[in-house]
Amino acid sequence: MKILVINPGSTTTKVALFEALTLLKEKKINHSNQELARFDSIGDQLDMRVERVSEFLDEEGMNPSDLDVIVARGGMLPPVRHGAYRVDEALVETLLERPAEQHASNLGAGIAFRLARPHDIPAYIYDSVSVDELEPVARLSGVKGYDRRSFSHVLNTRAVAREIARQEGFDLEETNVIVAHLGGGISLNLQSNGSLIDVVSADEGPYSTERAGSLPVFSSVQIVKDQGVDALYKYETGLGGLLSYTGSNDAVAIETRALEGDEESLLLYQGIAYQTAKAIGGLATVVGGQVRAIILTGGMARSNLVTDAIKTSVAFIAPVYVYPGELEMEALAAGAWRVMRSEEEARVFKPDR
Prior knowledge:
Layout: E1 2-8, E2 12-19, E3 22-30, H1 33-37, H2 46-59, E4 69-73, E5 84-86, H3 89-97, H4 107-116, E6 123-126, H5 136-139, H6 154-168, E7 176-182, E8 186-192, E9 195-200, H7 217-227, H8 229-239, H9 241-246, H10 251-259, H11 263-286, E10 293-298, H12 304-314, E11 320-324, H13 328-340
Parallel strand pairs: 1-4, 4-6, 7-10, 10-11
Antiparallel strand pairs: 1-2, 2-3, 5-6, 7-8, 8-9
């Protein structure tokens, strides 16, 4: 079974070819600022991204017709369930024209659709960022009409949870796990009997390398008064966190300074661990503390300074497992593989117009 995996980011498009679950070739296609500056919106980049992925296939001596299935990262859809969704016109149109948020991942389904349709190849997205399986009580925000939304690093956190469950011999469909993705943005979710029943999204949790996380409301109001609403948005999407405090988003350099005795750098790293541990503790209360595993993943999970501090704070709740990095490409391929083998059923997205 030949699988093409497509994972668009803001300045890159990651692509990979798999034979069943074996990785054959992976490439990060870089998009320069000059290349991206030609486009007024993310949706306008579709033709260019399709062309670049087609070039990758040409380099590998393959045509789309040689593929058995194409799978792409799921973008910012309205609330969906976990697992696979069939890529069709309605799903692509929603992601390009009416997404929940603007993000480069919204291009994934469109690229897959454009490559797959002429050759009648099945195409799917898997574990979209917008997976929403919240309990009704978890939706309440405190202001009518502005419910909490469910955004987290679903693709990687579910994949890592499956891997830890396999290694430790427990069934994700019969237990509770809390997974924290520690990356450029930090999000957490509570996976209960296979469903994501609560999350801590990147805008309501710990600050990270570049994101402010859960800014207090009155501080947010003051930022808007002082700097404007665009500044507040930028602090939440790329100018907050360590970058705001230090002027740098080089997490490795900041950690090095912390380990060498720089007190400010150490405090900032302690703050990330402190806020992450608090978020884990909060999610644990949702299931009365009945948690089988706490899992730390993402790029910052490589930092012992962060993970050791989190472990010290939350190990009383459940065993803590550290799985650095991410399994996004492997998770997408595995999802498509299970669907093609009829081990999972792909859903059909029904837009709410």
